[in-house]
Structure formats: C-alpha cells, structure tokens
Design brief:
about 160 residues, mainly alpha, flat
Length: about 160
Amino acid sequence: MSEVPSSREARRPDRAALVIAPVLFILAGIIWWDAGRLAEMTNYSRIGPATVPHVIALGLALLAVWTGFEAWRGDFPEREPVEIQPVVWIVAGLAGQMLLLKTAGFSIATGVLFALTAFGFGRRKLWISLPVGIAISFVVFIIFGRFLQLSLPAGLLEHLFF
C-alpha cells in the first residue's frame, strides 16, 4: 500500500518568508541601536524616550524568529498572486503627492494621491474621485492646519480661502 504524503510533508520552506525574517531582524537591530543613542541623552530615569523603541525592537526580533521558524516548517498559507497594476497606481499616487506637495499644496497633492489610489482599487472615474479627494483633503487641511495649528504646506487652494 503506497502512502500519500500529507499536506504538511509536501510543503517546502517558504522562500519569501525566509527572506522577510532576516529583514525583520535587521530592522529590529537598527531600531535597537537608534534607541540606544536616545538612552545616552537622558539618564535621569529608567523609563524614557528609548523605552518604547526598545520594546518595538524586541517585538520585531521575536517576530523575525517566529517568521523564520514558520517559514522553515512551511506553515504559511498559500498566497494569492500579486497584481502589479494596482500597486503601480498607488506608488504613482505617492510619488505624485511628494512631487506636488510643495508646489500645489496639501489639498491638491493629497487629492491626487486619493484619486490614484482609488483608481488602483478599481474606481475608474478619475473625474469624480479627484475632486472628492481634494475636498476631503481640504477638510483635513482645515482641521489640522487651522484648528490644531499644525504646519501643512499651503498651495493655491489653501491661499484662496485663507
């Protein structure tokens, strides 16, 4: 009688997770090192500005070990294929926001990010999502820039009203 291998025996180590685990560990080391520099600045209390980054670094290190262990065992579920086109639209929105932030201002730049992200998620009507994104971003600008007195880059639209 031939035995059929179980799904656990047929699974191979997850190569993507085996790459992610050391990256998480390196990130934990960088955060730990940077938090160590913060600890040198303040020595009057045991709990200070370096406490939370140290906890985050420990959490990332534990997550790295756990990810590596689970990747080696092959216990991760099968991933769906990645669709590149939505990712490109979202990255284009982020790049557009970064390029337009100083010249066009917060509302227009963030509206472009909103519209291109919505386009990437399947909302194909840019002539609707762009004005909606600009309007929502303008409300956010008013809340954070005017009411909370935070410094956000103002552009043509913001100067028109304020």
